[in-house]
Amino acid sequence: MPQSPIQIPPRLHRSLQLALFAASITWVVASTELASRAARGLVVRFAWSDGYLLLEGVFRIFLLTLGFAMLEGIVRRGAPLRQTVGLPRRPTAAQEWATGAAIGWSVVLIAVLPMAIAGRLSIRLWLEPRSYWLLGLNLATVALLTLASEMALRGYPYQRLIDSIGPTWATVAMAVLSALGAGLAMQHLVPTYLSMIVGVVLAVALSSAWLRTNGLWLGWGLHFAWIASAGILFGLPVPGIDNLSTVVETRAIGARWLTGGEMGPAGALLMPLLLLGAIVAVVAVSRDWAWDYTRKPLIPGGIPMDVPAPAAHEAMERQSAPAAPALVQILPATPQGRSVEPES
Q1: Where does residue 4 rank: exposed (0-12), middle (13-18), buried (19+ CB within 10 A)?
Q2: Boundaries of every domain in the chain
Q3: Cβ density class 142-160: b for 16+ within 10 Å, e for less
Q4: For 56-109, what is each residue's pLDDT tens digit?
Q5: CA separation (Å) from 295 to 203, 287, 316?
Q6: Cβ–Cβ < 8 Å for 133, 54
Q7: For residues 300 and 298, what is the distance between their CA atoms, to the nearest angstrom?
Q8: pTM for the complete prediction?
Q9: In sequence order, what are the residues at sequence separation of 6 or more whose Cβ sits closer than 8 angstroms to the Cβ of residue 127?
Q10: Residue 241 — φ and ψ, nearest 5°?
């Protein structure tokens, strides 16, 4: 006999989800430190300093996947791993990622365009063979680091927080947490009010991508292109990640509100407005995906046909059923047999 699912009171369910969120964020912090130490050890062991960030990204993704799977296994056995980490297998995954990348690239392009028009960019090209090798390495590094960031902040922890306090407050909380984390990751740079606003609005844009698709593909593509376009394509500074300028190295000269200074496009005054536009774009392009992946399935009403109807319902049907009509035999008006009377 199949067992009925255990009903958890709503308050207890929310408390459980909040506890899972706290545990997952703790694991995010611990896995980041573990990944950094492991990558540093391998870099020293094999004398490969160029691959430090790449190795850190690999270790972070592995540790995050392991930790989130263990946490989800505590409350739900057999949960799909890809769904747990926020990367469900779906036919539109590549299209979602490419669409997000187009939005991220467009945001950075529009931010850099005023600098170019004002003649504030000094560009230098490095065309040695090693530059192209580092170009590929940096692209892979940014892909892994942005995936790790999305898994940590918009993957399993964000799902648990939504189940605990709802999508609106969960988005606000993760936006503040993302901005604080980005500020701590800036190393020698001092965060400004503008850079913190940019961090909050970017986090809202990435959270909107999750809410519209219930997956990280769209947000991952946007985050990747936002960093790769600024640091690799245009060769401008990216807060928190150094040495992305391998083939193209650009120096922006001018007012900080226009160029962003050492923050790059992320510190320009135009960036928050562009990211607000990115939120609108995310909502617009994800209309079909929101219908396919986030709408709740329709539950048909009525009485299921595979289970017996309630006794009270059957009694009502019997009482309201019309009486069976009486059967009346209609005889023919004219005898069908031969007449017995003699013919005259």
Answers
A1: exposed
A2: 91-293
A3: bbbbbbbbbbbbbbbbbbb
A4: 999 999 999 999 999 998 888 778 899 999 999 999 999 999 999 999 999 999
A5: 23, 11, 37
A6: no
A7: 6
A8: 0.82
A9: 247
A10: -130, 120
